[in-house]
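Data deposition worksheet. Section B asks for the primary sequence of the deposited chain exactly as it was used as input, without tags or linkers unless they were present during the calculation. Section C holds the resulting structure in token form. Section D is free text for depositor observations; keep each observation to a single sentence. Incomplete worksheets are returned to the depositor.
Section A, Depositor: J.P.
Section B:
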Amino acid sequence: MKGDSALRSILRDLSIALSEDNKFRDVQFTDDEEKFGFAPNDETVYVNPKHAEMLGIEDKISEKQEFLLIVDTQSHEHEHQTSSDLNSIQEFSQKYPGRPKMAAMVMNAVEDTYIDNRRLSRDRGLKPVCRKANEYWIKSQEPITEYNGVRKYMWAVFQITRGNGTPKGFNKVEDEAFRDYCAKVRLLINKTKSTHIPKDRQKIGHKIMSLIEDEIGEAEVPEDMELPENMPNINNEDMPEPNEENVIEMSVPSPNNNNNEDNEDNNSCPECGFEDYSESIEEVDGMEAARVLAPFDKNDSWVGSCEFIMDQDEDGLCGFRVEPVGEIPKNSIMNEGYLIDEVSSNIEILEPKYNYDDTEEIKECDCPNCGNEWIESN
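Section C:
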């Protein structure tokens, strides 16, 4: 897309709608081929107008679709300005003088996860665009089994962050220790989404760094290992066409999001779709939260008996011992970051206890329309 004065004027006007504080911010263009956008300070955002060219899909999407990609990048950078400490990544990396680049990468992944969840919860019309961009990136990557050494553990963090929690080709990973590592990273990344205090997000970053260092020991970080930014050409993949009748409040055309996948995050009853349900926040013991936040429905037909189990060791595991009476949905459970162990005729579905603090907040929901009751993490 041509970075002319007309586009710049539109993006400047959109800065008010895209910024949580409704503050006008300047928008400038950059021709840096390695960056879709960046925010050097609280007042100005730089965006690259040639998103389609950078993605290698200029012959596959329309100008309207490319405009959506640009707006998504702008939204991302504005959210950094309103919700992130722009010095936090540098400060975090300074705590790892032997591995500052790796630390910066990890903290960048943590911070991006938080601000994307925050902005897309508010501007839902951008969710399909962000999801599609992440799909392009994941499909451009080598399977995680093709990486070795430090890169393997770092790229797992990137792919978990952008790949809906699962590295590419994870189903072909046979290394149980690496599968365990990925499960722990996914749980930490998921926790980032609702971690609103910056210092607590840094604690998550430190935990991920600890997991990586436990695996790589004294291995040095390659100098040429940079944070992946651009997405290479993806063949036979098209951006969704905008639906002119379904626009977000800022009047930017949005892809059609009437399918079930796009509506799964709507605030409605999972049984009947009723939106005006009641909810209350309860603070409970951390292990009680682990007990109620199972990665499966305990009333599913494949579940026979089910009991909560946990190690006495503070750094141990907790989860559920299930006697299955049908086909176990292993992929969906593992995609939630849990480990599955077969013990005699039972299975154990486990996660690390340290994913829970001493106390956790849970959201208790009640639908007056159909009487359904359910619990969500807060």
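Section D:
The first strand starts at residue 26 and ends at 29.
Residues 227-266 have pLDDT under 50 and may be disordered.
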